[in-house]
Amino acid sequence: MLFCFEWSIEQRQMDREHFHTPLTEGNILKGILSFALPLLVGQIFQLFYSLVDVRIVGEILGEHSLASVGATTTLSDLLIGLLNGFTNGLAIVIATFYGAGDEKHLKKALGGTIFFGVLGSLMITVISILTLPAILNFLNVQEDLVREAGQYIRVILAGLICTAFYNICAAILRAVGDSFTPLLFLILASVGNIGLDYLFIGAWGFGVAGAAYATVISQAVSALLCYIYMRRRYPLLRISFEDMLPERELFKKLLTSGISMAFMISFVQLGTLALQTSINILGEKVIVAHTAARKATGMFMLPFSVLGSALATFCGQNLGAGKPERMRQGILRTVVLTWVWCLAVILFVQGCAPSLIHGITASTDKMIIDTACRYLRFDTAFYFVPAVISLFRNSMQGYGDTKTPVFSSMLELLGKIAVVLFLTPKLGYDGIIVAEPIVWIIMVIPLIWGMLHSPAFRKEKGEKALDI
């Protein structure tokens, strides 16, 4: 059942004419949406099996075990986000060469992406496992949660290579315009994860570590299948050992793009990690409530990240194709689209937040539900700002501005550290609730300035007026 594809090399030979995609020609918004839709569905499934872990752990093992998992969720999100940002940054270079029709440098960029992606994941795994006791201490994980939290996060860390390899293959496929294929394997992983969760946690009694084993095994299978498919389906993406040998200028370009995107993501996650150090000392119920609220937030913000990823590839390809006007119109039309979504989320949360939190945690505790709802109802009112943040900084990475997004994300990190030091000690969890909207407003300012001075928005003489 897994290999239900007919792989015909002759059928998929890619010559020069196949370098053109709907991202560089045709209806702009239709092209972006057709590329983003599989990404969205894929992210939903990825979030889904994260939610399944939370639900099954809460249902079978109880709120104490759920708090143990929640206490380290920000750490795993940080490291996975770091790897994901790094590989997506590498893939932007691939998208630029693809848009320009430069096959020689495309293959070298592919080789560099695989080399750096695997090396980076191994380094992060080794360092994080060796320093895990110090990390758990830094996170203020309560003594009664440390044992289960360590069991869960060690397995996740050991399996980072599987996550990284899937992200590498998926990022390469998306860079050449194929966002549908990674979705298929992600769906497979999500369905498999549910069955493995019940097997490891319920039937075999592995405890919280079982949820981690289920996640890693599912991702390993999807990574392997995605790699086999990529090589068989797209001859252009086959590389030799020589393609992985360093070429100074190209590898420098890859590292600049990859590290910039990784820093952008990691500063965001480090800020969240800083907040978690305060949350972990506020008690078990607050940890569970915040874990649930953040899972809901991740779901609501999916269109921001998905359309942002689509814009990164869109801008990269159109930069290579020399079409700044197309870049500008794509960015602005996507902003309008996300703001419509923000309005729908605000209305939904005001009426349905309690049911949503119960559905995520399986908890009926009034304090947990009320605390999570308070977070969601306040923060969603400001979602118009992070929508712009996500779209602008991904677009900037796509057209080569690697500094402004990192600076903006650094402001986010500094702002959240300030919250930990000054607001939370005085306001408790209310300080966490108000933190993100304040930080969002601060960090969007350099992004707006940078976008107005970008290649997409600088008008040359004789250029057509913007048509939205």
Order of helices and strands: HHHHHHHHHHHHHHHH
The helix/strand class is mainly alpha
Largest sheet: none
Strand content: under 5%
How many structurally independent domains?
1
Broad shape: globular
| Total beta strand runs | 0
Polypeptide structure, described:
There is one protein chain. With 468 residues, the chain is an all-alpha fold. It has one domain (26-452). It is 79% helix and 0% strand. It has helices at 28-61, 63-100, 103-130, 132-138, 143-158, 160-175, 181-203, 208-233, 248-279, 284-300, 302-320, 324-361, 366-379, 384-398, 404-427, 429-452. Helix 1 runs antiparallel to helix 10 (284-300), helix 12 (324-361) packs antiparallel against helix 13 (366-379) and helix 14 (384-398) packs across helix 16. It is globular. The protein starts with 27 loop residues before the first helix and ends in a 16-residue tail after the last helix. Residues 1-20 and 461-468 have low confidence and may be disordered.
Task: Give a short synopsis of this structure.
The protein contains 16 helices and no strands. The chain has helices spanning 28-61, 63-100, 103-130, 132-138, 143-158, 160-175, 181-203, 208-233, 248-279, 284-300, 302-320, 324-361, 366-379, 384-398, 404-427, 429-452.
